[in-house]
Amino acid sequence: MKSQTDGIAPPVSQHYKVPFSLRRFARANSAQLGILGVFLALWLIFIISAPETFLSPQIYYAIMSTIPFFAIMAIPLTIVVIAGEIDLSFPSIMAMGMVAFYFTYNSTGLIGNATIQVFLAIIAALLTGTIIGWINGFIIVKFGIPSLVVTLGTQFFWRGAVLVLLSGGNFTLEFITKTPFYPLLVGKIGGYFPMQMVWLIVVTILGWVFLNRHRFGAHIYLIGDNVKSAELMGVNTGRTRIQAFMLIGLVSAFAGVIASFYVAYFWPSLGDGYLLSTLASVFLGGTSVFGGVGTILGTFLGAFIIGSIEAATVAIGLTGFWTQLIYGLIIVLSVIMHTYLRKRAE
Amino acid sequence: MEEYRLELKNVSKSFGEVQALENINFQLGRNEVVGLLGDNGAGKSTLIKIMTGYYQPTIGEIYFNGQKVDHLTVPKARELGVETVYQERALAELQTLWRNIFMGRELCNSWGFLDVQRMRDETYRLMTESMGFTSHAVSPDSRVGMYSGGEKQGVAIVRALFFDAEIIILDEPTMGLSLKETAKLVSFVNEIKKAGKSAIFIDHNILHVYNVADRVVVIDRGKVAGEFLPKNIGLSDLMKKMVHVAETGSLE
Predict the structure, then answer these.
(1) Residue B143 phi/psi, 5° resolution?
(2) Is the Cβ pair B88, A228 closer than 8 Å?
(3) How close A294 gets to chain B, by Cα (Å)?
(4) Which of A24, A251, B112, B210 lies deepest, with the highest CB count within 10 Å?
């Protein structure tokens, strides 16, 4: 064994490159190719069973305008799950962000300019989401309590806070439709392509970059894989996990803003319907519930499968009751699959 | 007075009611290989985890090159040139080889963005030049979990050497290795010595420690039971002494 003790050597002139092999590519990306296969197969089934619906562009515009509300949160949730944690409190964070929005808008009436007021209110919402995420992370890391338990608790706590602060009331957001934030966040490009889809793509790309090309993401994978090893090798496992929870807090508050802007109305139950579909997108996308494994692209495709299942069950003629059953089945099956794959890898 | 590379003064460590280490005084000289011997549960692993910053001592002081270091953490210890090959290897088995080599020390720019190509290139170079991996199953992008025990240990060792280590700590490095791999490891420790670095070699196999160490420190029940120089003692005498330590807790 030759020792290499001169520290970091100058960059090697010859880059490490492997000749492209289809088999190696397939094996390295089996999870993503698998989910892509499921995606295409389901699409084919939908087209065959309801051709009038799935061959017209309207259904795709409809899917693209509703999916981003939960898909956008599935991206940071993927990062949290890869780190071996879970967050169940994001639906309540969506609503709490909007409470901060409401109070900020109402208390800045003196400014008299709706655009500036809405801008400040959006900042307040995002800040609130980030702080709630930090609180989640802080409790999980500093007290060493499983995130499942902590976020189950904070989910109820923040939902309760929403109801207490607004006395259970709902309110209209009519005023936002006259500000430039309305077309910027939930407008339609050329009258068709929904802006929330653009924001989903932006968040997906940023999520991919942070997970795959940044130290933060590298540490997320290491923590989810083996937290003891990561700690022994000097990874700040506590800070990284808290940052992951702050990220999902921030993005959930943003999702709350766009979901409320879309209907220009606030319901205190905002986010309640998104828990299952967001979780199902992450697990269907090939992210392991045991941590250390997962991809952003998988979650992105997973979200579209989840979103189209809802559209398809109705189009095929089944009742909406079926969607919940199918989501639950997807979560259970993907967890079983990962347990099996993990055992085989050992 | 000679300055030590690393010195522990009156270090104690307790976990709740359990006293793992008691009043340890330990020195590691420049260009010295110190062997740490002790039975299972004697406190060897706790001692090295204090040196690497993983545990904080309950009381006691740590000096690097004569300078006192407060609140030693893992990143701080690595900055001071301490690299460790842990008994549990400290690998992330679902991740690729290059991610394991650069674990906790990713090459990145000031914004924290990774230089993935450079890490892959360096991994490939280390793999072929230092680890002697020739198997087709091993590449910078292959998952470490699929490797053999010897290959995994090779990853842990090469990782310790890639960075500018001044002190290399080897915690039970021969565990699970074949005879050939063990011989390679022993020659590797000799090379650390030749390169002018210091090392701490922990093993419960007396033979391995006897062959490579300049000085051997014996630990028993959380205390330093004594130390000796291998050149002054025969192997059979040493065996007798170790049994004596296990029975009485002292070397004499």
Answers:
(1) -85, 135
(2) yes
(3) 11
(4) A251
Neighbouring-strand partners of residue B166: none
Question: For chain A, how many structural domains are there in total?
Answer: 1
- Tell which residue, A191, A190, A189, A192, has the closest CA to residue A56: A192
Find the Cα–Cα–Cα–Cα dihedral A315, A318, A320, A324, rounded to 10°.
-110
The answer as to whether A328 is a domain residue is: no
Three-state SS string across B158-209, please?
HHHHHCCCCEEEEECCCCCCCHHHHHHHHHHHHHHHHCCCEEEEECCCHHHH
Q: How far is B234 from chain A (nearest CA, A)?
A: 29
pLDDT, tens only, B112-132:
999 999 999 999 888 887 766
State how far residue A20 is from chain B, nearest Cα, in angstroms. Answer: 13
DSSP characters over A50-76: -HHHHTSHHHHHHHHHHTHHHHHHHHH
Does the model's pTM come out above 0.80?
yes
At A56-113, the pLDDT tens digits run 888 888 889 999 999 999 999 999 999 999 999 999 999 999 999 999 999 998 988 9
Which of A120, A155, A133, A129 has its CA nearest to residue A259?
A: A129
Does ipTM exceed 0.90? no
Q: Is the pLDDT of residue A210 over 90?
A: yes
Tokens 């609180």 locate to A135
Cα separation, B242 vs A309, whole angstroms: 70
Q: Cα–Cα distance between A110 and B131 in angstroms, integer?
A: 69
- Interchain pair B157, A1: CB under 8 A: yes
Chain A hits for B90, CB-CB cut-off 8 Å, are 226, 228-229, 232-233
Full domain range(s) for residue A90: 56-271
Identify whether A147 is part of a domain: yes
